[in-house]
Amino acid sequence: MIKQSVQEIINKQINAEMYSAYLYLGMAGWCADQNLNGAAQWFKVQAKEEMGHAMKFYKFLEDTNSQIALKAIDAPPAKWNSLLNVFDDAYKHEQKVTAMIYEIVNLAQKEGDHASASMCKWFVDEQVEEEAQTLEIVNQIKMLGDSKGSLFMLDRQLGKRE
């Protein structure tokens, strides 16, 4: 079993990952309402990925015979002003998740919890990818300006994500 303080922060992270899934489903719904079905698909895939992250933390707690303490998941926002706002919020959210992962790593190292620190290495690497991918889309949307044709093409590209 891992130390109580590490169990608590990992349980907090499970909640954060599930919130991320809710947030991305909300973003998918907004995109679909705007007829941006490709972006909606992108966010649905992202939501599924976030649930996978939550389950990875959950399984780690199970495997270490640690206490699992699920909490209520906050409702995410449901409205944005533009696709740029949606992806910018997604990018900011990924930065927040990265900071939370770093908190777990720092605490695990402080507590001498090598198992938790080792498990978190995967998440540290994953967050580099998550932030880079989302920022790339933010920058692409900024380059589009007001071009509806370019937005249409980007939306089609986003929809190819599986």
What does this protein structure show overall?
- By secondary structure, the chain is mainly alpha-helical.
- It has one domain: Up-down Bundle (Ferritin), CATH 1.20.1260.
- It is 78% helix and 0% strand.
- It has five helices and no strands.
- Helix 1 (4-33) runs antiparallel to helix 3 (83-110) and helix 2 (37-63) packs parallel to helix 5 (148-158).
- The chain is elongated, with a radius of gyration of 17 Å.
- It starts with a helix and ends with a helix.
- The mean pLDDT is 97.
Question: How are the SSEs placed, and which strands pair?
Answer:
Elements (H helix, E strand, L loop, with lengths): L3 H30 L3 H27 L19 H28 L3 H31 L3 H11 L4
Helix pairs in contact: 1-2, 1-3, 2-5, 3-4
Summarize, please.
With 162 residues, the chain is mainly alpha-helical. It has 5 helices and no strands.
Describe the structure using short key phrases.
single chain; 162 residues; mainly alpha; Ferritin; 78% helix; 0% strand
* Helix content estimate: over 70%
Total strands: 0
Give the class-level CATH name. Mainly Alpha
User: In the CATH classification, which architecture applies?
Assistant: Up-down Bundle
The total count of helices amounts to 5
**Estimated share of beta-strand residues:** under 5%
Radius of gyration: 17 Å
> Biggest sheet, in brief?
none
Described by the principal axes of the CA atoms, the overall outline is elongated
Give the integer mean of the pLDDT values.
97
Element order: H for helix, E for strand: HHHHH
Write out the CATH superfamily name.
Answer: Ferritin, core subunit, four-helix bundle
Head-to-tail CA distance between termini: 36 Å
The CATH topology corresponds to Ferritin
Give unreliable regions as ranges. none
